[in-house]
Amino acid sequence: MNRTKVFTLIMAGLFSGSLLHAQETLTLQEAVKYALENKAEAKKAKLDVENSEYMIDEVRAGGLPQISGQGSLTYNPLIQKSALDGALMGRPGETIMVAFGQPWQANAVAQVSQQLFNQSLFTGLKAAKSTREFYQINSQLTDEQLIEKVANAYYEVYQSDLQLKTIDNNLQNTTKTRDVLRGLVDAGLMKKIDLDRTEVAINNLMAQRQVVINAQELRENALKFAIGMNINEEIEFPAETFDVDASLLSEDFDINNRTEIRLAEKQIELLELNKQAKRAEYYPSLSFTGNLGYLGFGQKFPIFNSDANFSPYSALGLNLSIPIFNGGATKARINQANVDIFKAKVDLEDAKLGLNLAGANAKAQIKNSLLTVDNNRRNVQMAQDVLDDTNNNYQNGLATLTELLDAENAYADAQNNLNTSLLNYRVAEIQLIKAKGNLKSLVNE
Fold it and tell me: What residue intervals traverse the membrane (predicted)?
């Protein structure tokens, strides 16, 4: 009899406070929490949210004063001369060549600029904040997709575990029958062929058991990958009752609460802001500029030279830019933005249809699963009764070994069918919870 596994999870880091401690069982809730903290998709989604804050900072910086400083040092070994009319200097009829400037010149200046009105900047700041909200919603969607993936992988491991328990039950019963037959054969009361047939049945069950064990190992590895766990960690599981809840069918769902819809609506909002940014190209812009500098010049190196001449200077100004005509490029960009918005709205309506379909299918699957589970439970009970009666008749010589083995196989098939229907119910339950937008409840249940 395969014992139910008990989960042992070694803490993967000192700062992962929600990780499981040693000797605790791995419930679905704990597996999901582990995945949300360790799986690459969840980590990257959280980093996108963090990065959106930096994007806002970048856009906001454009509305703050921009200050810069510059310095230069120039040496003019040959100064260009300019021609002057000699009459200006009392020498009519002559042209006098005069060099203006000094061989050495140093300049240091501080400049400041400030946007006073820029519609593109204001729109960009709104878009940056909406982008942050977009990444927050996208992070929620990533978490929900990860929860769904982990839940499906988790129950797939249980499918192998339940199959293994059914095979072990059948193997135990057949082994008991084999032991009884061996005593009868040794006493000369039973033919050896019946014992051989029982040995063949046991060997077949052992082969099936190994196949299921191999499949179970693969599914456990898939679960480890799904939650971001080291593949070499040992995982064990608690007992699972697989209770069904018919009340799920009575609950309605609203697709407007789905994260996918909120994400699509936020995408449309971003596209609207992109359109506003294009339209902002029609608006004038106004900015302030100012500078304060210091100029030094002389016949020798002007720095640390008391013989050099120094002169401060400053300027203040306003810059106004008014767009007049750019050949219709702005209008074309606005039209392109409109097309992107229309396409996004079409995608939103299509997503709503798909989510409504998925919700209706999930309800139908739950309904069918409930009926199948109920039928399979009755079938298991009947198969158990048949097996008990056949075993009793066989003990009294009223049934053949073939009938007994057939009854054991029928009971094993009925049990496997029940297990499969219970797991199918669980998968359908996850889809219905997803349709209601409550996948996060699997973390807090």
Answer: none
pLDDT level of residue 5 (50, 70, 90 thresholds): very low
Collapsing DSSP to helix, strand or coil, 315 comes out as strand
Query: How many Cβ atoms are within 10 Å of 149's Cβ, its own excluded?
Result: 19
Place of tokens 């940056």: 128
* Residue labelled with tokens 């766990």: 229
| Contacting residues for 86 by C-beta, under 8 A, at least 6 apart | 92, 93, 94, 95, 96
**Type and span of the H or E element at 134:** helix 119-186
Measure the CA–CA gap between 67 and 292, rounded to whole angstroms: 11
pLDDT in tens, 75-102: 888 888 888 877 777 778 788 887 787 8
pLDDT grade for 133, boundaries at 50, 70 and 90: very high
Q: Structure pTM?
A: 0.74
Give helix 40-61 / helix 28-38 axis angle, nearest 10°. 40
Cα–Cα nearest to 343, from 274, 280, 279: 274
- 321-347: string of b/e by CB count within 10 Å (b at 16+)? eeeeeeeeebeebbeebeebbeebeee
112: three-class secondary structure by DSSP: strand
Q: Encode pLDDT of 363-418 as tens digits.
A: 888 889 889 989 999 999 999 999 889 888 887 878 887 888 888 888 888 988 88
What is the CATH number assigned to the segment(s) 28-63+118-283+325-444?
1.20.1600.10
8 Å CB contact between 34 and 20: yes
| CB contact set of 360 (below 8 Å; sequence gap of 6+) | none
Distance (Å, rounded) from C-alpha 395 to C-alpha 389?
10
Q: So where are the chain's domains?
A: 28-63+118-283+325-444, 67-116+285-322
SS3 state at 113: strand
Q: Coil, helix or strand for 105? A: strand
Helix boundaries (H) for 192-234: 192-227
**Which residue, 283, 31, 13, is CA-closest to 158?**
31
Cα 29–34–39 angle (5° rounding)? 130
Angle between helices 40-61 and 119-186 (to 10 degrees): 170
